[in-house]
Design brief:
The protein is built from 21 helices and twelve strands. The chain has three domains: about 5-210, Nucleotidyltransferase, domain 5 (2-Layer Sandwich), CATH 3.30.420; about 220-350, PX Domain (2-Layer Sandwich); about 370-415, no CATH class. With about 500 residues, it is α+β, with helices and mostly antiparallel strands. The protein has helices spanning about 65-70, 75-80, 85-100, 115-130, 145-155, 170-180, 190-205, 210-215, 220-230, 270-275, 275-285, 310-315, 315-325, 330-355, 370-380, 385-390, 395-410, 415-430, 440-455, 465-485, 495-504, and strands spanning about 5-10, 15-20, 25, 35-40, 45-55, 110, 140, 235-240, 240-255, 260-265, 290, 300. The longest helix has 25 residues, at about 330-355. Helix 6 packs across helix 7 (about 190-205), helix 16 packs antiparallel against helix 17 and helix 17 (about 395-410) packs across helix 18 (about 415-430). The strands form three sheets. The chain has a five-stranded mixed beta sheet, sandwiched between helices. A five-stranded antiparallel beta sheet has the order 11-10-9-8-12, with helices on both faces.
Length: about 500
């Protein structure tokens, strides 16, 4: 059976925040999906009749970043009038993707920048609604990676805009513009999906010689086999817009399935082999690389390394010798394993401090231990019946998450005790002005003020529309702040009824 591709894109409440002050980058795990579009194509990237394009209302317990509203040009009033609730949307996505997966052996889920962003948002939205989160694994592709690969292999094949630093940018809208690809509406999920399909076809046709290689690593097993069976290979990296290839050799698989420890052959591996385990932890910095095989790594033949710096100066002969020394080296593997143990201890210590919320880790879904009860929860037609199931769930994390979900979806059916418990928790999360991994009401208000100032100081063709969006959103935030501060608050209506209360 030929493969098929499921292209999808999300519009969300924001781009995410740092998980903790110590974290390197931002995480989008706390953002809500506001729109999803998906189109199934055949192996030639021709659209089938399988597609969805759905919007939903915001959860009262999740605060949108004002910038997301300005980007999509959809204000809070419009969002509150969406037909579906957040839970209804996630239930539909789960059922639709599951159905699409049935009639093919290995569908590939693909989109632009989905590995770093959309996938995380989707997984955590499924998890926060108590669905199994990993429905798009194990075959995943990313048109951002494909575009970067085409640029790395043949820069003249794809036109890219330049950043202020002079590095290539791979934003979908600009790539479409410069390479004459169709784009209907920027920052609309359905339009972005169709543009991603067109970009994939463009890349396939522009580099037919390397297409099979680029496509192969969308499959986790094939990528794993490539890494483990080649003494040396090239791996594409990107940082701050800069795209480069690294020549690597695999040492061993890590504690995580499909994650491989590799060493950059730009460095002489002998000191790493000879040193002690303690010295190894210092020396290995910037010389190793995780290759994660279920994240569409761009893997290319090792022989092309000599075409790129610094490997062209090292020479093929030396690179081959280094690869022989590194490949499946037991001494290096033992040192990596010891280093992993130390890092795991550190991670657990940090986790105990930073991950204080029940919804923090999607990979703990399987530890709830009551999968059949959760399945029954989703099968029940009424929220009253769903609440009965929620009350029977013993795992404290799942129990709270279900009650928070009901608070957002049908709060009237909660007992007075459970309603007040969730309301109090959300007050502490959203109203109190302190560092959180998600957007709080005070933060959102500050963002609104900042955006107001920007609009007043700069010329903007859509100034009036944006000002209206911000004014409405500020009114919504003030309402929520007052609501979560009120200890005697009553359950809120949803959708248009809530909009009428706020904006009448």
């Amino acid at each position: 059976m030929p493969p098929k591709y499921i292209f999808y894109d999300l519009e969300t409440t924001g781009r995410g925040k740092k998980e903790s002050p110590k974290a390197f980058g931002t995480t989008p795990k706390w953002e809500q999906i506001m729109q999803i579009a998906a189109i199934v194509t055949d192996e030639n990237f021709q659209e089938t009749n399988q597609n969805i394009n759905e919007f939903c209302r915001p959860r009262t317990s999740i605060i949108s970043q004002p910038g997301a509203l300005l980007t999509t040009q959809k204000g809070i009033k419009e969002a509150l009038h969406a037909e579906m609730s957040s839970y209804e949307l996630m239930k539909k996505i789960n059922a639709t993707f599951d159905e699409w997966k049935k009639d093919t052996q290995e569908p590939v889920f693909i989109g632009h920048n989905i590995i770093d962003f959309d996938e995380s948002v989707l997984e955590y939205n499924l998890f926060h609604n108590l669905f199994f989160p990993y429905i798009t694994r194990k075959n995943r592709g990313d048109t951002l990676s494909l575009a970067r690969a085409l640029y790395a292999l043949n820069p003249s094949s794809i036109k890219t805009p330049l950043t202020a630093r002079g590095n290539p940018s791979f934003k979908l809208e600009k790539l479409a513009e410069l390479n004459n690809l169709p784009i209907e509406f920027a920052h609309d999920a359905l339009s972005d999906v169709r543009t991603s399909i067109a970009l994939t076809k463009y890349i396939q046709e522009s580099d037919k010689d390397n297409w099979n290689q680029l496509q192969m690593t969308m499959n986790k097993e094939k990528a794993m086999n490539y890494v483990s069976s080649n003494k040396g290979f090239c791996y594409m990296t990107s940082f701050a817009g800069r795209v480069k290839l690294q020549a690597l050799s695999m040492v061993c698989e890590s504690q995580y399935s499909g994650w491989f420890h590799t060493i950059d052959l730009a460095h002489d591996p002998e000191p790493l082999i000879e040193c002690s385990a303690e010295e190894f932890k210092k020396l290995i910095k910037k010389k190793n690389r995780y290759v994660i095989c279920n994240q569409h790594p761009i893997l290319l033949p090792g022989k092309i390394a000599s075409n790129y710096e610094p490997y062209n100066e090292i020479g093929a002969e030396v690179l081959n010798e280094r690869a022989k020394m590194v490949y499946k080296n037991k001494t290096l593997a033992d040192k990596f394993k010891l280093m992993e143990i130390d890092r795991q201890i550190e991670k657990e210590e940090e986790s105990s401090q930073d991950n204080i919320f029940p919804e923090s880790k999607a990979n703990l879904f399987t530890q709830f231990g009551q999968a059949s009860d959760l399945a029954e929860f989703h099968e029940k037609e009424t929220w009253e019946d769903k609440y009965k199931i929620a009350l029977s769930i013993k795992d404290p994390r799942a129990n709270f998450m279900l009650k928070r979900l009901i608070f957002d979806e049908s709060p009237k059916i909660l007992s007075n005790e459970d309603f007040k418990m969730v309301h109090r928790e959300l007050h502490d999360r959203l109203v109190i002005n302190q560092e959180r991994p998600f957007t709080t009401i005070p933060e959102a208000m500050n963002y609104v003020d900042t955006e107001f100032t920007k609009l007043e100081e700069n010329v903007d063709e859509e100034k009036e529309k944006k000002l209206t969006i911000l004014k409405d959103y500020n009114k919504y935030l003030l309402f929520l702040e007052k609501y979560f501060t009120n200890k005697n608050a009553e359950p809120l209506p949803s959708g248009p009824e809530l909009a009428k209360i706020i904006f009448s």
